[in-house]
Every structure is written in C-alpha cells, then in structure tokens.
Amino acid sequence: MNAQRSADLRSFAIVGHASSGKTMLAEAMLACSGVIGRMGSIADGTTVSDYHVTEKQHQISTQASLLHTEWLGKKLNIIDTPGYLDFLSESLAALRVVDSALVVIHAQHGVGVGTERVWKCATECGIPKVLVVNAMDKPNARFDDVLAEAREHFGHRVFPLNVPVNPGPGFNQVLDVLRSDIVTYDNSRRGKFSEEPATGAWKERVTQLHRELIEVIAESDDTLLAKFFDEGGISEEELRAGIHAAVQRELFIPLFCISAETDVGVARLLDFIAKYGASPADRQQITGHNGGDTPVVVKLDESETVAQVFKTMAEEHFGELSFFRVYAGTISTGMELWNANRKISERIGQIYVLNGRDREAVGSLQAGDIGAVVKLKDTHTGNTLCTSSRTVTLPMPDYPSPAIHAALQTKAKGEEDRVAAGLATLHDEDPAFQFRVDPELHQTVVSAQGELHLEVVAERLRRRFNVHVDLVEPRVAFRETIKIPAAANYRHKKQTGGAGQFAEVALRIEPGPRDSGIVFTESLSGQAVDRVYVPSVERGVHNACAEGILAGFRAVDVKVDFHDGKMHPVDSNDIAFQVAGYWAFKEAFANAKPCLLEPIHEIEVRIPEDCVGKVMGDLSSRRGSILGVDVDGAFQVVRAQVPAKELYRYSSQLRSLTGGRGVHSEQFSHYAEMPRELEQRLLEQAKGKRAGK
Questions:
Q1: Could you tell me the CA-to-CA distances from 505 to 194, 215, 510, 646 in Å, in that order?
Q2: Residues sharing a CB contact under 8 Å with residue 440, sequence separation 6 or more, in sequence order
Q3: What is the pLDDT of residues 670-690, one digit of tens each?
C-alpha cells in the first residue's frame, strides 16, 4: 500500500452493542473495496476480523481487530471491536487512537446499554461519531423508531443521510439525501449499485430532508448562517464543505441505514467517510508529560517520533504483536526508540499493516497511521515509544474496575509457576484483567469485566501455557466479631526440665465500632507483669485474630485491654506471654457472644424500563436491599446493597433477565452481621472441614 499523507488517512473504530453487526460491517467494507473476494460469515468462522480460536468457538468478537483498505484515494484504518461489555476495554483502547467512531445500532433492537457506553467513551475521547442503523433486511426492522430513539439519546443533531425505501427481507434500496437519488443495490454482496433520481412521494421526502440538511449545516457556521438568511439558502459546494466542519464539531451527527450481511448501503457509507470523515489533521496535537508532571504538547507535524502501544497480543507461530499509533514523526523498521514508561530502549522490528491474521510488511509508518510491530522485548499495553532526545509519556486509558471474580484452581501439581507466568503475561496484554494471590483465602483470585471475559482468559491460559485449571467460586472473606463485653484469665505453664515457660494474662474485651479493627491497650498496675511483655501479649492477640475463633475467619472490631497478669522471674519470656495472650483472647472471645460478619457490595444495575420488576425481584431474592431507582435517559439505574456471597455469576443471571440489555457494576461497601440461620450453616461447614483435617 502506498504511503499516504496524514490528511488522507481515515482511522475509525466500529463500536456498538453486542450483536449489532459490527464484524459483518467490517467484512462488507473489505468486500466493497476489493480486499476480499467474497464475504465470510460469523456462523462459519470465516470473517477476516474474528479469526481467533475463542471468537470462532463463541461466535462473538473478543478482541479488537485491525483492518485496512483504500477508498477514493484514502487509506482507511478500521478497528472492529467487541460488543459485549465484558470486553469494553478493547473498545476503549481503540477509541483512544482513532479519529472517529462508527456507532452501530441494530434495526430490530434499537439503542442498547452498550450503545450508550461506547458513545460516552467516544465523547470522552473527543472524537466525532457516525451512527449506522444495521440489519435493515431483517423482519420488523424499524428505522423511524430507531431514528427517534437515537435523537432521544444523543440529541436533535442526529440527522439521516439516507432512508430505507424497502426495509425488511429483500431490502436493497435507499434514498440518498445528499444526492437526492434512489440507490438500488444488486444481490452480488459486493456493494454494486445503480442510481436514479427520486420521483413522486420519495422526491417530496428527499427534497424536504435536503432542505432540513442545509439548515442544519448552515446553523453550524456563522458565515453560512448569515448567507442562508440573506440569500435564502447555500450552494451545494458550500453544503458539502460545511459537512466536514459540522461533523468534526459534532454539531451534526450523520446517520446511515445499511444491511451489512447483504452489503447494501455500505458503499455510500464509505464514500461519506472518505470525503467527509475525520483525519489526523483534524486533531493535530495530543497532550502528554515529559516524564514528570510537566505537560507537553505533541504535534502531528513534528519530526521527533512519538507513538503509543494500545494493544499487545500473542499470535500463534508468530510471536507477540504490539499495535501502535504514530502521533508524530515516522516510525521505521530498525529504529531505536525509548520506552518512556519502562525506561528502556527498544529496537523496532518488522512493521506490519494488518487485515485480521493477514499481515503486510511495510518499511515505515508516518504520523497519524496505525500498524503493528513484532517482538518488542519489554513494551506493554499503554506504553509510549519516543526518540531518546525527547521523552514523552502519553496518557494511558482508565480501564473500568472488574465486575466479577473467580478463584483459579489448578488440577495438576507442578504447574504453579507456569500459571503465575501465564497470568502475568495475560495481564500485560489485557490490563482490564487482574489477578491476586489472596493470603487470607489461600486462593488465586482472578477478576474481569464479566463472565465471558473470565472464560476467555481461562481458555487462553490453558491453551497458550499448557496448564490445567478450573474457575471455581471464590471463598468469601467473612469476619468474626463480638456482641457483648467479656473477660478471661489464662495461665500458661510448661516445665520440661531446665528453664520452663510461665505467663498469666488477664484480658477484658468489648465490641468496637465497625471497621475499627483490633484496638489493644494495657492498664496494668504495680509490678505483677513487666511492661516488656506487653508487645508479646499483643502479638498473641493479633495471631488469634488472624486465625479466627469461630470458623477460621479474621476477628475484627474488638477493643482488648490487658489489665492484669503474673510472671516468673526465671521462666517468663516472650513466647510464654504470646501463648498466654493468644489463649486468653480466644477464651474471652468465646464468652462475648461471637458472631459472623459478611461483606456487603453496593451495585448499580443499568437496564431498560421493562426489566425493572424482574431485576428488583431477583435482587430481593439475593437478600438485597434496594436503595433507589434513578432515571438516566431511556434506562433505569437500580442501586442496591447485596451480600457478596449472593453475587457470584450475577452477570449471567442479569443477561438472562434482560436479554443481554443490562449491565452492572459493583464495589465493596461495608460488613454487616450475617443472619443467624446462614451463620449456623457456615459454622457447621467450618466444623466439618476442621474434623476432616
């Protein structure tokens, strides 16, 4: 592919709610432009962008795929992104490096939760959006309703640049508002079409829409607006010149209707992107930092190279690919660049432009372009590469907090090191996935954006690192505390010949405020116990708290007072007082009406209005407490507090209840006393485990 000027580049991400047809739209674009001879299908696993094993198994996109083609002399960089919110981080990373977003809406389903999420992400990234209503060939395709929904969600600036003439099965005609034509597509699935002037009722409608479009564009520019009022209109040339500026300033949001599976309407969409779409020249600078806190502006026309890696991925039989965007200068094979985040030098290997798994080697890429490089030694997602003479770090994405957790259970001994190395590698590739070894629960806990995300990570771990692991329900970090004050006196005496062990400790305990931990004090009087042994008693108390008394969970929120005791001039020592403090605390704790506390999470569930009753009923069945319901556009946001134990695999249940239209987030709120019957059940389980040891 020939080198392009920055102004001739069109980099955009295809984003939207799950199953809206993003991958097939990318496939149709490649077919239209002649990159592929025929379109593949998701069911057969033959699309260009969904080529990974997990994507073929699940028949959904799980990774952002980089594609490229040419149209009307412009190079198009296309990033096909997953629609499931489990993989929102892939869309977020893509939106940060492109110049515009194609937001796809399914003609049957309308605006979904995922549509709003990616719209918000694109807005935060400061890039213009184009709406695409897909699947107009499906039964009950409802273009007018979806247009109304889009305006309700995204404002009156949404304007249709084409209208379906024959929606539903057999859809192949659109009314082109810019050209005032009816465009008829053949059934070759290659985007071929013929056009003829609109007549009759369609002529009246396109004339009205064209007049409205002129008004919208005129309102976006003071000069055009003045001419519109003075002369009663603007010329076609002024209209077309004004469209680009209006789109960039988001004073005008174009909307197209298409059928990606039959490649109807896609050619005219490509025309619009090539003629009026955003290029790197529309946003010529980005703000970073110079290695410290000082802001620095990186400009498109600077000679010093600045690039950022937005995705890393291991390709089978090929190695690790690092996807990057060049923000300034040129990046070439063989260059030495400085990784400003990790403070290391990297030699640039072979550079590629991609169409899914197909790679085309190029010698260099210029500012504004997107590509991939193979086998960087220690560069990860989000790192900035620059020339050593000018250190710059560009901002990294803020990935959403994990919404779901599971424990990783190894099935074969001796694989622990490979599992640890695999988890670290997968986290470097996908920062939205996190893991930790929990010393309290004695489990490796993995956290992700959703259950699909977790399953895909586990599949990659098994396949790439040849380990045998299962995802199981993580243990819950319950706590133990007391309800009433109590006291205990414990004497530790041990004689084995020679110096023995002696210590006597008297403790008083009482409940402390919630989240106060263990507060240890001493109120000794006289010389019964040397003060040097106070830290020993405190260590014994903390050891007992860490082990737990009732069921092996950490004891919390207790005030402990060491008020009396005895010692021996020869046999008393540090260990003796630790042991005495340990058992004195356990005895006092057992006499103070101990109980269990469970972690409570605060969750937000974002759902369509017709799902509110089902979701609230389900939350109540999980011992949840509803805090309130807020309205956010066409969606309802249910806020509730739910015990953590009841939230395992909640996202699957929510998907089932809402038909995939709901999303939730959760975070720890506080600890609360567990219901007595559940506490008894947990204590019996703990007793059984101790007996089985």
A1: 95, 87, 17, 41
A2: 477, 554
A3: 999 999 999 999 999 888 877
